[in-house]
Each structure stands twice: as structure tokens, then as C-alpha cells.
Amino acid sequence: MAPINQAAWLHKAGTELQVGDAPLPTAGPDEIVIRNAAIAINPVDCHMQKAGVFVQQWPAIFGCDVAGIVYEVGSNITRFNVGDHVIGHTINLISGRPKDGAFALFTTVPANKAAILPATISFTDGVVVPFALEAAICALSVTEPGTALPGVSTPALGLPYPSLEPVPSGKVIVVNGASSSVGSMVTQLATAGGIMVIGVTSARNAELARTCGAAEVFDYRDSSFVEKVVKAVVNSKLEFVGVVDSVSTGETYPNDLLILKKLSGGHLSCTHPPPTEVPENVKAGMIFAVNDVATPVWEDYVTKALQAGKLKCLPPPTVIGRGLEYIHGALEKCEAGVSAAKLVVEV
Ligand SMILES: NC(=O)c1ccc[n+]([C@@H]2O[C@H](COP(=O)([O-])OP(=O)(O)OC[C@H]3O[C@@H](n4cnc5c(N)ncnc54)[C@H](OP(=O)(O)O)[C@@H]3O)[C@@H](O)[C@H]2O)c1
Fold first, then answer.
1. Start and end of every Enoyl reductase (ER) domain (predicted)?
2. Which CATH superfamily is domain 133-286 in?
3. Mutation test of ligand 1: which of 62, 64, 137, 182 has the most ligand atoms closer than 8 Å to its C-beta?
4. Could you tell me the pTM of the whole model?
């Protein structure tokens, strides 16, 4: 007998998610269906719940990160089998289809946005990786600017993909917000691409950024941190590429621009629309974290790197509860803000 699917549905923007039955998804030719074991919460989910941003179809099932067991594979799939333990980046954000939302027991995932999870890693740990990984690749490795939002282009830093055996690229970047999910993953993947990272975090999270590979870390609450970051870049004697700002707020942008000014310009890779006024020598863009640029990383890097301990499941998960009914509370906690943690609901 087919299993029963359930989901945490959003019926109207600004209302509480309601757990109820949902159709059991079926896999398209290039998709897999996952029986989820863990789901992670991302800030974009809060915007979707509160304001209905990106929702194309009501009622909606959304959410971007899943880990679980493959339940069905599409007809073109050779990389996965039923029963495999996997992590995946779900794409309801662009497809609008409820079956592509993470907040359910069963979810459809494009096979090129999934990877086998090594047996040594729990679903709860593994689920912190997918969306942040794709966002990080979009921040680092896009080669031609595309469109993030109408009138807002994507950054195109064109940096190398991560590798199990990184070759020094001779380049250095600054990662502002290196303890966030996106920033810590940018730090890990840039380091694995042979790029030196200078990180910016609160003092208590400096160690996390170092664990992710940052060569030096500075506290954004230190009044002279901009000068220290600039000095570290200059002292590296490497080619300065730019700033990846994973926080991208009115608080971070003035410091990003100051760093760029003192280092004669470069890229400013943002997670939100960049500042409206930037000097001519600054190329600013906003990532849109659903992009096939990440496919080679999903297919060739993620599983081997997790297996080798070269890709770490950071920031660590904070489990909010077990069951879809915990997702709404997890969204509220995410909205209130986290520090070097990924909120996870087990199902
Ligand atoms: N455009 C896209 O496609 C896309 C994709 C993914 C995410 N995003 C956006 O990117 C942002 C980050 O997402 P996330 O999941 O990485 O968030 P997150 O993990 O929830 O971010 C929390 C972190 O932000 C850090 N932070 C807060 N204020 C800071 C400041 N002034 N300077 C430096 N760090 C600061 C905190 O560091 P401390 O605790 O050390 O203070 C904390 O660890 C969100 O706004 C999200 O919506 C956009």
C-alpha cells in the first residue's frame, strides 16, 4: 500500500502552517522522491510564510533543505537508487509546485541538486548543507552575470569550484558574515577552491569560521575591524577578488564598501539587493541560489568531500522537535535570529 504523505501547508500569507494530508509526489524523469528524515529552516522560508514571497500556488508547501531516504527514482536517474541516504535542495522557490517543498514527509528533488549522504553522517547533520551549498556556489563560481531580480544582476566572480585537493589560486576574498549558514559554506567552498578567506564574524564565532577554513577572522564589533581586514588582505600578497557579504544589510554594506574602497575595488557578492550607489570600481550583484552552476559540485564533490571530512556539516544543527507540527515554531525561531546554527526539524 502506498504510504500517506503529510505536509505543513501554508494556506494564506501570515498564517500558521497547518499539518494535513498531501498527495504522494511522483518522480519526473530527472527527479528523485525522498522520504524526509530531517528538514532545515532558512530565512527565506520566514519571508514566504509571513508575506507569501515567491509563493506561486496556494495552498503552498515550501522549504529548501531535506535529508532522507530515496523513495522513488525517475526514469533517467542512474546516480541514485531506492533506499539511498541522501541530502537535497528542493526548488519550490522557483517551480511553485507543492511537491517540491521541503516541509512534508515526501518531497521531489531534482537529481542534480542531491547527493548521497555517507553512512557516517546523520540526516540531522547532513540537512544543514544543501541550500547553503548552492547559495555559496552562486556567490563564488558564476562566470557571467544573470538576473537575480528584475533590474538586479547576479554577481559573477568566476572562482574555481571546490576540490578535494585544492590548488592555490593566488586569490583572496573577504567573507562578511562568515558564521552564517551561507557565509560559513562560502568559507568552506572557497577554501576548497584554493582561495584564501578573510572572515568577519562576532568574536564568539571566530573559531567556527576558522574551522571552515578562514585564514584570519575579525570581529565586526571591533571598531577597527575594517582596517584589520584590509591589512590582512594586503599582507596576503594575493589578488583581491572582492567581498562576499552573506548578511547583506544596512549594517554590513557600509563596511563592505569601505573595505572595497581601501583595496581599490572589486566584486561585492550579496544575498540581498546590493547598495544602490556603488563606485565604478565595484561590481555588485545579488545571488539567486537556484542555479545549475552548482550541478558539478553536487555530482562530483559533495559526497566524496563529506566522506573525507573535507566538507563539514556546519553551522551545527539545532533540533527544534520531531514532527511537521514543529516547523511553524522553527520558523518563528529563525525569524528571531540564530547565531552560527541551523534550525532543523526531524520528521
Ligand atoms: N539571494 C539568495 O538566493 C539567498 C540564498 C540564501 C540566503 N539568502 C539570505 O542570506 C542571508 C543569510 O542567510 P543564512 O541562512 O546564512 O542566515 P543565518 O545563518 O540565519 O545568519 C545568521 C548569522 O548572521 C550573522 N550576522 C548577523 N549580523 C551580522 C553582521 N552585522 N556582521 C556579520 N555577521 C552578522 C550572525 O553572526 P554572529 O552570530 O557571529 O553575530 C549569525 O551567525 C539571509 O538574509 C537570507 O535570506 C539569500
1. 14-345
2. NAD(P)-binding Rossmann-like Domain (3.40.50.720)
3. 182
4. 0.98
